[in-house]
């Protein structure tokens, strides 16, 4: 089998399809091949539920964000009947309608001023408010004389949208399974966490010279903690990890208990989220939701890491910190949270260094894949097999 076609064939992945105790890692080309990346863009990123933002960004009618999935720009907005998403493409000549977020009464293409309602319907060609022009110009712009032209057929092209807790997802595949299939039982298992109430307090962006899958796989295993994160390992120790797994396309683990160390500010006596049970108040949840987002839940804050591939060897990472309003309301909140930011920035830089090292190593053609460590890498085995399922068309 020659070229890109081998990436569509089940036999290419035979060693990764074995049980984790016997399996080898995903083929190295999956992390650097332009051909693999092109197919992956279509079969993973264009056919999965991708987390693109948060419900608080769309709180009021007209609130709108503009996001990019693969090479496609997408409008996500709160219309009067709920959250909707559309391809950011005018139905006239294909210009991008929006370039930035905002709160809008309607959308107008900057090229020829075709106007669309928040529900995507085409309302004017090009104007749809009478006070914007004179009757004489309106007669010129009147589209009713255009042959076989029906504005109802030229609304914005819709994109499937789903909401869970504070998260907003889109799926570019009109025939995709519902978001609930991808979530599995995750919503039920996290029901005590007040996700809808949490507020964004800080965002940081990182540019990583590594394939997005390496970043994801690094997050979802704790085998590397003692060597890569000696400080984190003092409070989220290797020995205190156990699986947090169920049906669905997520890969999770729990640290319990979280140990205390005066030199490691993972917990700075911030107020815990309300309604957590005894076990949750002593634990951290680490969940990767396929394909692009991690949910790190500690008793007093949440960190969301969202990935956007910028080629087979480069990833843009967004790191968002959330806290409960009760925590934010603490008089010394800013003083307590600042060391938390610094600590996780250090941890993230440690991760970036190691995944960039792996990326360089994978380019060495002598390496043809390695054996999975069954005790620590079952999550990676599941993740890689979900990638394979997408590549060969099984889901």
Describe the structure.
- This protein has 395 residues and is α+β, with helices and mostly antiparallel strands.
- It folds into two domains: 50-160, Rieske Iron-sulfur Protein (3-layer Sandwich); 193-391, Naphthalene 1,2-dioxygenase Alpha Subunit, Chain A, domain 1, CATH 3.90.380.
- It contains eleven helices and 17 strands.
- The chain has a seven-stranded antiparallel β-sheet with strand order 1-10-9-4-3-2-5, with no helix packed on it.
- A hairpin with a 6-residue loop joins β12 and β13 (250-255).
- α6 (212-219) crosses α10 (333-362).
- The protein is globular, with a radius of gyration of 24 Å.
What's the arrangement of secondary structure elements?
Blueprint: H1 14-17, H2 34-45, E1 50-54, E2 63-69, E3 72-79, E4 82-87, E5 102-103, E6 107-108, E7 115-116, E8 122-124, H3 135-141, E9 158-164, E10 167-171, H4 179-183, H5 186-189, E11 199-208, H6 212-219, H7 225-228, H8 232-235, E12 241-243, E13 250-255, E14 284-289, E15 293-297, E16 302-309, E17 315-323, H9 325-328, H10 333-362, H11 378-391
Antiparallel strand pairs: 1-10, 2-3, 2-5, 3-4, 4-9, 6-7, 7-8, 9-10, 11-17, 12-13, 13-14, 14-15, 15-16, 16-17
Helix pairs in contact: 6-10
């Amino acid at each position: 089998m020659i070229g890109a076609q081998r990436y569509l064939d089940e036999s290419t992945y035979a060693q990764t399809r074995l049980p984790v105790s016997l399996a080898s890692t995903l083929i190295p080309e999956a992390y650097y091949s332009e051909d693999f990346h092109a197919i992956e863009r279509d079969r993973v990123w264009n056919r999965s539920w991708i987390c693109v933002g948060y419900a608080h960004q769309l709180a009021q009618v007209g609130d709108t964000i503009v996001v990019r999935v693969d090479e496609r720009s997408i409008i996500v907005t709160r219309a009067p009947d709920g959250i909707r998403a559309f391809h950011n493409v005018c139905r006239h000549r294909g210009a991008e309608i929006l370039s930035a977020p905002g709160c809008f009464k309607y959308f107008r293409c900057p090229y020829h001023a075709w106007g669309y309602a928040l529900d995507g319907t085409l309302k004017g060609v090009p104007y749809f408010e009478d006070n914007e022009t004179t009757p004489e110009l309106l007669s010129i712009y009147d589209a009713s004389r255009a042959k076989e032209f029906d504005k109802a057929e030229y609304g914005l092209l819709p994109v499937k949208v789903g909401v869970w807790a504070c998260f907003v997802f889109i799926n570019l595949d009109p025939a995709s399974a519902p978001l609930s299939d991808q979530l599995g039982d995750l919503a039920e298992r996290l029901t005590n966490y007040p996700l809808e109430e949490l507020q964004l307090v800080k965002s940081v962006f990182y540019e990583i010279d590594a394939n997005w899958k390496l970043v994801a796989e690094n997050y979802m295993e704790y085998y590397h903690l003692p060597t890569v994160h000696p400080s984190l390992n003092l409070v989220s120790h290797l020995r205190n990890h156990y699986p947090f797994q169920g049906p669905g396309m997520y890969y999770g683990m729990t640290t319990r208990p979280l140990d205390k160390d005066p030199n490691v500010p993972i917990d700075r006596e911030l107020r815990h989220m309300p309604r957590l049970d005894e076990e949750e108040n002593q634990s951290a949840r680490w969940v990767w939701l396929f394909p692009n987002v991690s949910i790190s839940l500690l008793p007093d804050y949440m960190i969301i890491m969202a990935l956007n591939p910028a080629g087979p060897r480069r990833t843009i990472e967004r790191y968002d910190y959330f806290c409960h309003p009760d925590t934010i309301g603490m008089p010394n909140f800013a003083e307590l949270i600042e060391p938390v930011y610094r600590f996780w920035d250090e941890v993230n830089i440690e991760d970036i260094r190691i995944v960039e090292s792996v990326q360089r190593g994978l380019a060495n053609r002598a390496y043809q894949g390695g054996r999975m460590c069954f005790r620590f890498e079952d999550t990676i085995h599941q993740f890689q097999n979900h990638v394979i399922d997408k590549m060969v068309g099984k889901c």
